[in-house]
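Morning run. Coffee first, then this:
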Amino acid sequence: MQLNPYQSQVIEDLELYLRRWTACDDAKLAYRAHWDAQGATKMPGYQDAPHGAPQVCAKVPTAGGKTYIGLHAVSSVFKALQRRQGDARLCLWLVPSLSILDQVLRALRNSDHPYRQSLNRLFEGRVSIMDKRDLLSGHLSRDEVEDGLVLAVLTYDSLKARNKDDRKLYQENSSLDDLSSTAVAVGEGVDPYSLVASMAGLAPVVIVDESHNVTSSLSQDMLRNLNPSFVFELTATPRAGANIISFVDAMVMRDQHMVKLPVIVRNLPSRSSVIAHAIDLRARLEAEAQAEQARGGSYIRPIVLIQAETKVKADAKTFEHAKAELLEHGVPEDWIKIKTAEKDELSGLDLMSAQCPVRFVITVNALKEGWDCPFAYVLATLADRSSPVDVEQILGRILRQPYVRAHGHEPLNMSYVLTASTVFSSTLEKIVAGLNRAGFSRNDFRTPDLIEAEVKPASQPTVASGQKQEQTAPLSLFDAVSSSDNYSESTAVVSEEKPVQEESFLEVTLKAVHQAHAELVASKADPSSSHVPVEVRGAMDLYPVRPEFIEEIRELRLPQFYREAPAGLIFADADGGVLLDKSQLLDHEFHLVDCDVNDFVVAPTAGDLVKLDLLKVGSSQGDYEPTRVRLKDTEIRKWKDYLSRLDPEAKRRQLTGLVGNWLGKMPPLAESDLQAYIRKILSRLSAGQLDEVVEQQHAYVESLRQRVRNEMLVFSRRRFKQWIDLQKIDTRASFAFPVEISLRQKAPVGAENSLYVREEKGNGLEERMSEFLSDCENVRWWHRNQSGRGFYLNGPINHFPDFVLRLHSGLIILLETKGGDRDNSDSDAKIELGQIWEKCAGRGYRYLMVFENSPPSGAYSWASACELLRNL
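And here it is:
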């Protein structure tokens, strides 16, 4: 099981923040830099947590795989904390309910479950999973937390000490003698020899699942008592003031087949018809599933969730009434299970098993969290608008897509809501609110513009505000899905007064889905459809393409490098190609450990001069790279004392792990290959030189990082040219300019022939070039390309040229400037890549590198470049 693209993006966002934080040791500064780098300069500032440690959040909609993301986050956080031998690795995983606790523990304790297998891979198999009982019994020991990872799963309530059993966490515990020396003073009323004090002394990493539940002062005291080193929140609906570092868009989840969208909502005239239609709809879906399986698809048994009412009204459709009505319709009793706070007939059942007969689950409120059954397709809600149990409490339970892939029969890729309400628009609002609560905001989807017929008595033919006159005939879902330049519908609605045949219902539903799919395909080809989560978009200053260039830009596609798609790749283009990624050039033939290290030297640096700071590596605001800081003097002495007791070979083994921790991950290299390379280098050092590794750790790590990058680049450049010669790589029209951009730093004034109303501000030679292009008569338009976010030449390196411009002749030019104040060590690789691109792209394209002084071979001086541009 691997992280999918959006899950990987969450981890990448977390690691970017962690690198900034570890570089400057300031959570607030790192948070500001995190969003400035993305152009979201108006994102609200960082909110300090009472416990003093960094606390950040990822917004991931329901069914997005928060648990799996969290497990990888644990690894990323511990690596960033630079945990070394002798330090503890304790993670407290906090969940809101016992049902989720049991679910997580069951998965993590199962050696065959993908969650546990991922943890074992991330922590080399040294993983211990504990619950409250294990912790209180003394299973938490110094050896456990120093030799591997201890992950303890607890509920919020158990740490809030609301009952006698939970208060044991805060009372003296003789079973913890092994950890008594690590205990620290925490909140008032907490015994210094208690479990909480002992865990606090280990400065645990805390993962808070469904963190929107942790808002009270008692919850904040709970976190403060734990003395965390880092807190990472996961939720679909972040609490007010959460420091969000990553947003997952609902439409991205749909594209990854994680959720069943669109949601088809149907309003029916009575609660009895809801049950009747749910039975028929489920039967039709099962027929679709059986047809799919007969053609080689996976086993699916569609399940209906029936949301019953509480017993507060005389005419309430309670779970007993709902079950009785199902039985009256001939539904076998073993197909029906009840799950409420008092009655749990799902316990011990594997709903995904082909031997399980369950097809209907009746609940009131018990499934609002902790439910994980992708076979749930239909939500039949009997709760009306006055019920305290609203639709949104369990809507997210039907969104998860079976087997995380699209199915051949379109109805199996959607979810369904059946409801009965005297005021349909009110019920619709509750369904929309339910999607909001599941992490699907109004800006991620929208209810189509349609004629909403409110089902009312004939004597009250009122018209809802903003709606057209109600109609007696049911609306077609094909009509319900409105046309739009940017398809973003996740909800289609049909309303009716009179029941229609299920055959008709599914037929019009299928028409709507076909139209939605066609619009989605069209939107992906539209550069204006690149989705930015609304929360991030609202924090950006956006500048559009100038009106006179808009149609030209909608049609323009710049060439990028493509390679042949490996056999069986799902996401290849229709002609069998995939966009080249530089990691693809480092295939199984590249082994870092085989590279020569005889000429490897370390440029020494005075340890006292290593500066704790964020180093600028680009011209844009927020463009930072962390710099490794030195160990403290006490840590240096500790390590030197420890290493002095080891023989040279043991010392090299320990230093290999230490240097590897300092270096961190260098994808796409395997960690085992990187470790072997480090051992090879250290094997050449004498005993005295090995001691210097600790004293000069900054110099060793930076020299090693640069050497590894150079080895990868040399191999990649050679492989790239080979594949070009063998025609395994070519260029294809690919990159589309967005119709609007956000800027990290905007230029003080606009230019009449700039592509966008305002462009990015440059430095030095870049600004001179902007002024020249603004005045150059044969330049139709020019654009200050954004590093990291704009167009790039994808080869052995990802090269973002400073400018993209088009002449009146139609010629498109990529232009890179190199001022005298820049480190130009990468110029040769960029020139080579640009020249290959120019040759492959054809006569309509040129690449120019412009030096302020002394251009190398293949580049231009400022004067010669300006003369060339005026005459092209």
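DSSP finds 26 helices and 28 strands in the chain. Good start to the day.
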